[in-house]
Amino acid sequence: MLVERIDPDWQWTKYRKVLLSRDDGPKVSYPSKYRPAAEASTLHRSFAKAFNSDERRDRFDAYRFTTTKIKNRDELRDKQNQLHENWLTSFGKLKDEIIIPLGPGDEFDELHFNKEAGYVWWIVQVFDVLRANNMDPEKVKAYDAFGTMIDIPNPAQVASDDDNFFPFQRAVLDPPPDPVTSISGKVNDHSSYIRRNIPRDQDTWSVNYSELLEVLAITISRKLQDGINLSFESLDRDTMPVAKGSGDSKGISITGFPFLNVPRGRYGNRGGKVDNPLDFTHKIDAVLQPKDLLTFIWMLCAEELTELPHVVFENCKAFEFCGNTIKRPALRPCKYCRLQVSLYSDPTVNDGEPILANVHDVHGVTVDCDKSGDGQHEWSKPRRDWCSSACQHKNRKN
Predict the structure, then answer these.
(1) pLDDT tens-digit map of 281-301
(2) Which domain holds residue 336?
(3) CA 129 to CA 156: how far, in whole Å?
(4) What is the chain's alpha carbon radius of gyration, rounded to the nearest angstrom?
């Protein structure tokens, strides 16, 4: 049995109003349920941006409040409070630690939030490097993977000795492997492809592609350990929409029919007007449910790892306000000739703004469009411009 899908009906709590105070602790009100899989399907990238709010050289120290380069600590505190308040308003707490009402004894774990945001930021940076270099795991042979060196951010930018962050342990704390003598008597000291115990102030870590995939897989697996439950889609009757029937089926609701194959909209929502729920067939899908929002974020990291480099991320139409991205296929049909047009992200462009390559078909042959006026391919307009229906409703007037 192959189960990869995150439960689209899994729910979490966010808050309409949040106030963070160092003296009195967090105060939240008006909780509401939402479905992260539908409304925050690229939340791991939004979370990474939460860490990327200061100058890179100062960022990690700034979040620990130890840097001497931050002159106005009150301004930094206000900025961080606003970031965290916006996060709790939009997505809720990372872990289900406290439920309203909150008192002075309850605290928002700011350090934990910043640490986890830093870890996810590092993972996302590595994903972008692999995507920019078009490193497709399905096409890189083992021999080439072992000898291909890739420069990625030094994990020491987001972790230290006391943090159980596997990339940091591997890059900074692990000593280089012992030399190996082959059958022919030749000694290989690994120095050309495995670099460990690197300086903490070094910007990048050079690691071979094969080992990098292992580091990513181990890191994400450890973060997901004991955090995922196997369930079945639509098994929870309380989350099913109420049908508005007509004729003989009037008054019949979908509640009580947990496995009905109810169509989903473009944002994953179900419900609306249902003419006759008794005409629906059944569909039984095994899905994975996270125990909390942080687990959901790491599940999205695992999902992106398995999809490299077949997906790319574009800014939501309201990116200026929501900061969210939309995941799209890296290959999409040209609206003129229907040839599959490849997309890649230019690492020199801020936020990985996607640019249109001129292009390769699925067989890797470079071709021009023979049906457009200028010979250039152009995508068909995507169905979605907004990251979620809630974002569209909130920001469509901006």
Answers:
(1) 888 888 999 999 999 999 999
(2) 318-398
(3) 18
(4) 24
What's the rounded Cα separation, in Å, for the pair 11 and 92?
Answer: 11
Total-model pTM? 0.80
3-class SS letters over the chain = CCCCCECCCCCEEEEEEEECCCCCCCEEEEEEEECHHHHCCCHHHHHHHHHCCCCHHHHHHHHCCCCCCCCCHHHHHHHHHHHHHHHHHHCCCCCCCCCCCCCCCCCCCHHHHHHHHHHHHHHHHHHHHHHHCCCCCCCCCHHHHHHCEEEEECHHHCCCCCCCCHHHHHHHHCCCCCCEECCCCCEECCCCCECCCCCCCCCEEEEEHHHHHHHHHHHHHHHHCCCEEEEECCCCHHHCCCCCCCHHHCCCCCCCCCCECCCCCCCCCCCCCCCCHHHCCECCCEEEEECCHHHHHHHHHHHHHHHCCCEEEEECCCHHHHCCEEEEECEEEECCCCCEEEEEECCCCHHHCEEECCCECCCCCECCCCCCCCCCCCECCCCCCCCCHHHHHHHCCC
Instruction: Evaluate whether 36 touches 10 at the Cβ level (below 8 Å).
Output: yes
pLDDT on residue 220: 97
Structure tokens at 275: 């003419």
- What are the tokens at 291? 């125990």
Phi, psi angles (nearest 5°) of residue 274? -120, 115
d(CA 18, CA 28): 4
253, 116: one domain: no
Work out the pLDDT band at 66, boundaries 50, 70, 90. very low
In terms of domains, do 54 and 102 share one? yes
- Rounded distance between C-alpha atoms, residue 223 and residue 298, angstroms: 7
Please name the amino acid found at residue 84: H
Q: For residue 215, which phi and psi values (nearest 5 degrees)?
A: -60, -45
Contacts of 113 (CB under 8 A, 6+ apart): 50, 84, 87, 94
342-358 per-position pLDDT tens digit? 755 443 333 444 333 43
273 shares its domain with 334 = no
Establish if 189 belongs to a structural domain: no
Closest CA to 344 of 333, 328, 330: 330
Are residue 91 and residue 118 in the same domain, yes or no?
yes
